[in-house]
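Record type: monomer structure entry
Structure origin: computed from sequence
Chain ID: A
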Amino acid sequence: MPAANTIDKKDVRQYVAALARRRGVVYAKTGNDALAEAITRLADDDVRTDETEDLLVALKRAHVIDGPTMVSLLGQHLDECRHV
């Protein structure tokens, strides 16, 4: 499992997509995901995840990355999205 501090994070989107491809991991929406979306909608919030965020969740669920690594990569990804 890669440690958060050992990952080249210059392009998280590309890194995450390549890691998921190498490990054969794809995102599949679960019942809990659907429930979270419904609750978010009922709270009148507008939260939409992108493919990279979904793949990070899938990689965590598949035990390819751990929680701290997921959080680190997600933060880096969101920073990259803001700077585009």
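Annotation 1: DSSP finds four helices and no strands in the chain.
Annotation 2: Helices lie at 12-23, 31-42, 51-61, 67-82.
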